Structure formats: C-alpha cells, structure tokens
C-alpha cells in the first residue's frame, strides 16, 4: 500500500486536507455554497458498529498493540481519576460551600459518575474502539451531535491537562517547603488569573506526552507503580485523619444548607473526571468484554469510597471554618501536630497528578485519533506510529495547546469550564444509550421512534426545569418540584410502557434500563445547573468557536469522507 511506503512524519497540504472540497479555492467556494444541504445530510446520517470498528481503523495505517488486561485497566482507573481534585477541591468546597457535608457532595457526584460509568461500559464492550464517547454518539445520534461532543472532549482534554499540570507545580513547591506560587514567574504584562507563568507545568506535560508516545505497555507499568504508592499515601491520610478526628467538628453538619451540598457536588465532580479514558483503550485491550467492565466499574466503585472517607476524615480533623481552601490536608495535619504530614500529602498529590497526566495523555490521544479517522480534524492526526504502535501526532495535538494554557492560566479559571464540559458529555451518553436500546434503523416503526423522542425530551426538559428551579433558591418552596419531578417519572414510564426495546446487549448491559440512563441524565443536568453563570458563558463562547470551525471545515471534510471524495495521497 502507498500509505505503508511513506514515513510517519508528513507535512503536505494533502496530508492535512485530502478532501476534494479543499483542493482549490473554487472547490472550497462550491463546498460552502452547499453548506445547508451538506449539514442536513450529516445531521440525519449515522455511522454503524462495523464502520467504527473496522473501516475507520484503516485511516491509521497501522494497528495499536493489544497489550492491556483488566489489571492494567483497574490501575488506569486509579491513575486517571485520583489526582489534584481530591486534594485541592475538597478543602476549597468544604470551607466555602458545604462544610462537613462535603462528604455528601462526594456521594452525590460519585453516584452521578457511577451512572455514567454504567453507560460507558456497555458501549465500550459492544464497540471496542479508541474513539470512546465520540464513536458511540456517531453511531446513535449522528455526526453533528458527535462533533459537539468531540469539541467538548478536546476542550476537556486540553483544559483538564493544563489544570493538573498547574496543580503539579503548586504541590511540588509545597514539597520544597515554599509557597504554591514560588516556582512561577509573575508578570504585569497579562491580566490577573493569567499573570503567573508556569514553565515547570510545560516541562511536566512534555515528559508525560513523551512517555505515553513511547509505549502503552511501559506507561501502564509506570502508572501501576505510581498509583500503588499514591494509594498507600491515601490510606495514611484516611487512617491518620480518623485517629485525630473530633466528632464535634461535624457540627453544624449543613452550615450552608442543601444548596451548598449540590453546588459543591458540581465542582468536586472534577475529581471524578478521567474514567472515560479507560473506554478509549478498548482497541488495546486483550479481552474487552471481560476486562472493561472490571476495569471501569471496579475502579470507580473503590474510588468513590476512598473519596468519601478522605472528605470525612478532613471534616473531622478540623472545623470547616478553619480548613485552608488552598492546602487543606497539609494545614489540617499541622493543626494536629503532624507537621511532617504535609510533605507526605504533597508527595501523594504529586504522584496522583503524575498518573493523571500519564493516563490522560494515553486516553486523549486515542480520542483524537478516532476523531481524525472520520476527517473531522485533519487525518494526519489519525496515524499510528509503526514502531511504537501509538498515535504520536494526536498526542502532540493535545499536549502543545495544553502546555500553552498551563503556562498562562490559573486553576480557578480552568476548573468550572472543565466541569461543565465533562457534565455535558456525560449527559449525552445516557441519551445515546436509550437510542441504542430502543431504536434500530429500518426496523423500529416510525410511531415508536416518535414516542421515544417525546419521552426523552420530557426527561431532559423536566431535568432542566428541576435544575433551574433549584437554582432560583426559593427557600422553603417545594411546589415546583411537585411538577418537574413527576414529569421526569412520566417520561421514564412512557419509555417503559409504550416503547418496545429493540436491542439487547450481546455481552454486558446496563441494568434497569431506562431508569438508570434517565437518572443519569437528570443528575448530570442538575449538577450542570449548580455551576455559576460564568461557567456557562465560557462554555457558550467555546461552543460558538466549535460551530464556526464545523461549518467552515469539519462539515465539508466529513461530508467528503462519507461520500468518498478524497484525493489520493502521493
């Protein structure tokens, strides 16, 4: 094959834009003039399991190496999830939003995350490809929905990686017994929030990306070692915290009311992000149908328990009003006479953030690879290196912008944007699962499809109404919920009684469908509504930029790809 004779590193225009629409200015103008008809085509078109699993892989020219087992995935789960979130956000939200009830915030966000994990697991077992949620949505909801999700995946990858890298620098400074910003360079040339330059974060990202590009198997081994050390540190934090616990510190338990619990839950959800990286490794898993459910469900169940215990131990060690929002665990240990404990906490946080960056580099590159296979972004980023069996170009596409953002932007600027992007993706997944179970093209009667659409719209609308009513903060008024919550039940019951299930999972499936997917929709939308207005403004601006790219480039590239209007590479 021509593609096999060429080297990996390619920089010609046809490698980036091989589609017919971009071969000349005249052809591009012609493509733009057909934007409406092309958009209609991509809006209603759907991919299928076989295309995602086999045909699109040819775009990478080389296969990724199947080298992972359930043991690797279990530790990837720990490595991808336990990082800066639990150490940074727990103290911040306990002090400012939830008080000792921060443990309930972790229960709520953990419950919501687990519902999403169920949905991810069924898809990952049925469609074991590198694209994760992007591939699943292309099959069930079409190209446009998949693109909006793809944009948010890339946003989550780039911003999330930058946030963790910034936090890495802060904890490294703490380990050196210096202030969190001591290793950053202050400048007056940029506005507040962007005026502390972080070259160490850039270096850490470069090292993580390099390791992930060399070998998936070696990265897995390194992750296992680092995660094991981090687990020991976490066990110390929990045990030492309970040894020095005072039950009096739990009073009052709800100082900011139930509202504070849910506002904090929406923010600490950031601490559960990353588990979707496991689904992207399905192509490199030896036995996806067995290994993925163990890796995803097993790791997330244990992580939820660990988070709740860590939050409870902090709340019992120190009064919520005295918790330091910037270095909660370190200061808490100092308050009980264990000054050396802050170094161990800093080491544990560093280890955790290092594995988050390592596993994140693996998962994000695989997302990008599959998105590029569809030509939604230039196909050169779909290439798998013949020697390493890893997508190096895709890794660079995430790492370079992440490094630029990490160099300038503070963690507080990044966290809320990341949470809303993550929650949006996790809301789309259960909707896609409902479509997969209850709709099969050319089989499902039109009347049943219409019933399904109406029921899903009722579930989504009632969830949004519940979240909006909660956001109004009308103290003592529950009248709104007596309308919105029953509508959610009616929408779900409508699917149960009036829409026959068309597909049964071959190997592993989500139990209690449609209840679990509908509950996942409700909890994710509710948590989204608990975020501040600023997060939605930033999310809206980012979405507008994504749509601009889509209508100028992505739409025409994917249309040509679907209709095989690709100019052969020379």
Automatic annotation (TrEMBL):
Membrane-spanning ranges: 67-89, 101-123, 144-168, 196-214, 221-244, 264-282, 294-316, 343-363, 392-411, 417-440, 452-472, 478-500, 507-529, 535-555
Domain Cationic amino acid transporter C-terminal: from-to ranges: 508-557
MF (Gene Ontology): L-glutamate transmembrane transporter activity; L-lysine transmembrane transporter activity
Listed InterPro entries: AA/rel_permease1, CAT_C
Coiled-coil annotated spans: none
Keywords, in A-Z order: Amino-acid transport, Membrane, Transmembrane, Transmembrane helix, Transport
Record Pfam families: AA_permease_2, AA_permease_C
Topology class, membrane: Multi-pass membrane protein
Signal peptide positions on this chain: none
GO cellular component, one term: plasma membrane
Superkingdom of source: Eukaryota
Subcellular location as annotated: Membrane
Family: Belongs to the amino acid-polyamine-organocation (APC) superfamily. Cationic amino acid transporter (CAT) (TC 2.A.3.3) family.
UniProt-recorded name of the protein: Cationic amino acid transporter C-terminal domain-containing protein
Organism per entry: Eutrema salsugineum (Saltwater cress)
Species lineage: Eukaryota, Viridiplantae, Streptophyta, Embryophyta, Tracheophyta
């Amino acid at each position: 094959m021509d593609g096999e004779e060429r080297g990996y590193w390619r920089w010609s225009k046809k490698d980036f834009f091989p589609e017919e629409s971009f071969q000349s200015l005249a052809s591009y103008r012609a493509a733009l003039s057909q934007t409406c008809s092309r958009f209609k085509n991509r809006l209603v078109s759907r991919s299928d399991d076989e295309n995602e699993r086999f045909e699109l892989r040819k775009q990478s020219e080389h296969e990724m190496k199947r080298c992972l087992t359930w043991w690797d995935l279990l530790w990837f789960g720990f490595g991808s999830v336990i990082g800066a979130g639990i150490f940074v956000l727990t103290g911040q939200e306990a002090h400012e939003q939830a008080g000792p009830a921060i443990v309930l915030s972790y229960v709520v966000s953990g419950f919501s995350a687990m519902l999403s994990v169920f949905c991810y697991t069924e898809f990952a077992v049925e469609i074991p490809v590198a694209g994760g949620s992007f591939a699943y949505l292309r099959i069930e909801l079409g190209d446009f929905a998949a693109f909006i999700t793809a944009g948010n995946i890339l946003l989550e990858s780039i911003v999330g990686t930058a946030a963790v890298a910034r936090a890495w620098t802060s904890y490294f400074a703490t380990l050196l017994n210096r202030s969190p910003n001591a290793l950053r360079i202050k400048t007056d040339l940029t506005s507040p929030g962007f005026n502390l330059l972080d070259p160490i974060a850039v270096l850490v990202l470069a090292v993580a990306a390099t390791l992930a590009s060399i070998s998936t198997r070696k990265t897995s081994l390194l992750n296992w070692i680092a995660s094991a050390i981090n687990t020991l540190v976490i066990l110390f934090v929990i045990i030492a915290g309970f040894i020095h616990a005072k039950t009096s510190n739990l009073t009052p338990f709800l100082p900011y009311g139930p509202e504070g619990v849910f506002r904090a839950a929406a923010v600490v959800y950031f601490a559960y992000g990353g588990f979707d990286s496991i689904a992207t490794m399905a192509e490199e898993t030896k036995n996806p149908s067995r290994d993925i459910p163990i890796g995803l469900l097993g790791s997330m169940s244990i992580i939820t328990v660990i988070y709740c215990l860590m939050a409870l131990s902090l709340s019992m060690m120190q009064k919520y009003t005295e918790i330091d929002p910037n270095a909660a665990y370190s200061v808490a240990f100092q308050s009980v006479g264990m000054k050396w404990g802050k170094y161990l906490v800093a080491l544990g946080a560093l280890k955790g953030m290092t594995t988050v960056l390592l596993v994140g580099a693996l998962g994000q590159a695989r997302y990008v690879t599959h998105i590029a296979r569809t030509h939604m972004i230039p196909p050169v980023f779909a290439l798998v290196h013949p020697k390493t069996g890893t997508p190096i170009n895709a890794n660079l596409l995430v790492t370079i912008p992440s490094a630029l953002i990490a160099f300038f932007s503070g963690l507080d600027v990044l966290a809320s944007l990341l949470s809303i992007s993550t929650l949006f993706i996790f809301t789309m997944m259960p909707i896609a699962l409902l479509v997969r179970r209850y709709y099969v093209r050319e089989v499902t009667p039109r009347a049943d499809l219409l019933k399904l659409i109406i029921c899903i719209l009722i579930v989504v609308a009632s969830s949004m109404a519940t979240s909006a009513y909660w956001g109004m903060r009308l103290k003592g008024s529950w009248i709104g919920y007596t309308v919105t919550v029953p509508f959610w039940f009616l929408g779900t019951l409508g699917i149960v009684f009036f829409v026959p299930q068309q597909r049964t999972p071959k190997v592993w499936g989500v139990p209690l469908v449609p209840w679990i997917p509908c509950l996942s929709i409700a909890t994710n939308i509710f948590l989204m509504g608990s975020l501040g207005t600023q997060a939605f403004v930033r999310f809206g601006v980012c979405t507008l930029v994504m749509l601009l790219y889509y209508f100028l480039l992505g739409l025409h590239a994917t249309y040509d790809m679907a209709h095989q209007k690709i100019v052969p590479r020379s």
